[in-house]
Design goal:
Blueprint lengths: L1 H16 L3 H22 L5 H20 L3 H22 L5 H17 L6 H22 L5 H20 L4
């Protein structure tokens, strides 16, 4: 089932890449539905990789929903992605992988971006603060193995927080 969900996600990404947002949302929704069935069926055997994949699917669908103007749906998806990522972080503790950390941090960033409007900039800043905290700990842990991919994610979090602060008049 998870391979089938992966194919649905590949289709979703292909649709997104050619600007077909509503088709992409539909494909993401199909993949999420499959992964949710798999999660229920596997219960205790649900792997961290599957959980991270599901969180990523929610985050990606949330970003596409935002682009399509569905802010409520976008925020709901980002909330689900963050909840899944935080559960994963708690369950894995020291075994929490850098890729899982990046995915959770980016879920916080994308939720902040989904809620970016002038009268709510304080809330967005807290999302970016959470992402920055995750990524700064990761940078310290990885030392010389800190990659450009991770640096780009941290830069995006700081930049987005700067825009949120500017929107709130905190210049």
């Amino acid at each position: 089932l998870n391979r089938f969900a992966d194919r649905q996600l590949a289709n979703a990404n292909a649709k997104k890449d050619v600007g077909q947002q509503f088709d992409s949302i539909r494909w993401h929704s199909a993949a999420i539905a499959i992964q949710e069935v798999l999660r229920k069926q596997l219960s205790e055997q649900w792997s961290p990789e599957y959980a991270n994949s599901l969180a990523t699917a929610y985050c990606n669908r949330g970003s596409i929903r935002k682009s399509a103007g569905d802010i409520t749906g976008a925020i709901s998806d980002h909330n689900t992605a963050i909840a899944l990522g935080e559960i994963l972080r708690e369950q894995l503790g020291e075994q929490w992988s850098p890729n899982f950390a990046i995915n959770l941090a980016m879920s916080y960033v994308t939720r902040g971006l989904s809620r970016m409007f002038p009268d709510n900039a304080t809330w967005e800043s807290s999302n970016y603060d959470a992402a920055i905290a995750i990524l700064e700990v990761l940078r310290e842990q990885l030392g010389e193995q800190w990659s450009p991919k991770y640096a780009n994610a941290l830069s995006a979090a700081y930049t987005s927080r700067g825009f949120a602060r500017k929107s709130a008049g905190d210049v």
